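Translate sequence into structure tokens.
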Amino acid sequence: MIENPNFAVTWRGGTDAWECDQMGHMNVQFYGAKFDMAEAVLLARLGLAAGADHRPLTDQIVFRKESRVGAALWVQSAVIGVDHAGDALRLRHVMYHSPSGSIAATVDTTVGHLPPAVLAAGEAAMIAPAETGAPDLADPVGSHDGVDLDRAKVLGLIETGVGVLRPEDLRPGGGVTRQGFISRLSEAVGHLIASEDTAAEFLREKHIGSAALDYKIRLGAPRRAGEVYVLRSGASGTVGRTLRFFHWMLDEASGAPVATVEIVAVYFDMKARKAIPVPEEILKLFEGRTVAWP
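Result follows.
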């Protein structure tokens, strides 16, 4: 644990059995839920009133070590930058395993629409990113240029989800929570790779699992509960042992982006819990079907 008054504990808890999925580890949506809580604690300590509007604009989440049933975890959070022109703070949240102190996951996020007093408090408490002890996340999050429902159709992106936004999916002010967005993604992947040779049952028989390594998320404009969304997804190829793919959550009525994510994922041996090359069945599935981010 790093002892720094401006890099304080903002959440402490663990991994419950019902938070774990068929891969045997905590589902990514619950990392999102815990980071949502940590962020709320940090902003409250900086003076943001309960229920006040604030809006994460970008997230980069790096998953470093899986968390299985019963894992004890904590999060430390800090302000690592300020953008007065954009009314935004740059925050870093780091999740650790107890008692080893090894890093489970890291989030670098930009939170906008903050009042001047919160910006000032954040600037006064700001620390250098290196003081968090977590590696910098160098790759920028992409923009929403060229992202809409019409473009998704032109690119032939696969429909991988349809539903409505629930009140619990939204922050005060209408921004989508991490859990509200990420909870849709694991199911979407199943539709993206749907075939007889890549069905979940087939992969389980071969003891093949998958895990996310990196999420680059960009949030869109505020939404309202009850709005219909669609998910359109595509794969952009492989790099080494990793598969790259993306999801666009789009408002069905306007076609505008609700949230998007670029994902780096890896397949692993569920017995050895070690990474393996992307299975041939997955590579074959995406032959001639990869799509570059516009």
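Note: The chain has seven helices and eleven strands.
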